Amino acid sequence: MPRDEAGKEWQKDLLTGLTCANFPEQVVDNLPNDLSPGIYYGWASVGNGSVHKMVLSIGWNPYYRNLKKSVETHIIHTFKEDFYGEILSIVITGYIRPEKNFSSIDALISAIQDDIEEAKKQLDLPEHLKLKEHNFFHLPESKIMNGH
After folding, report:
1. What DSSP string runs through the chain?
2. Is residue 141 in a domain?
3. Active-site hit among 5, 9, 25, 72
4. Dihedral through CA 78, CA 81, CA 87, CA 89, nearest 10?
5. I need a labelling partner for 48 at 20 to 30 A (CA). Which of 2, 65, 120, 131 fits?
6. What digits encode the pLDDT tens for the residues 63-91?
7. Which domain holds residue 65?
8. Is 127 an active-site residue?
9. Where in the numbering of this chain does the Riboflavin kinase domain appear (predicted)?
């Protein structure tokens, strides 16, 4: 799955309070056509740092009425500092649900929290856990920027 610089698109959603790393437009435009919009889970690494659980949204985020398709990665980990300019590597291991609109920000936040809990549960299963150690997550030393 994608590996790209997260720098320009790292953000904290002021409404939900979640920190996300968004892949650049050129990455989103080159995703496989058969990858349906929706909420996924898997593993993510920043630079050559530790691999963490993540939840990923692929699509147009109907609540925000986005006009462009996006890929937003929420890494289930608290970083000590931002990771602008770092290489973000992800592996998608499962699907949670299709994207949908919500009647309120509270309903959206509740669904996101449910998605995070589902991801945590699924990623503890052996078939997903084994992918955490995949060589894909080990970058050459020259790509490491600030050692997450």
Report:
1. --EEE-GGGEEE-TTT--EEEEPPHHHHHTS-TT--SEEEEEEEEETTS-EEEEEEEEE--GGGT-SS-EEEEEESS--SS--TT-EEEEEEEEEEE-----SSHHHHHHHHHHHHHHHHHHHTSHHHHGGGG-GGG---GGG-SS--
2. no
3. 72
4. 0
5. 120
6. 777 778 889 999 999 888 777 778 889 99
7. 3-131
8. no
9. 14-124
Closest CA relative to residue 61, chosen from 28, 26, 27: 28
**Which is more confident, 79 or 1?**
79
Q: Specify the pTM.
A: 0.81
Q: How far apart are CA 110 and CA 124, in angstroms?
A: 22
Residue with tokens 């889970």: 41
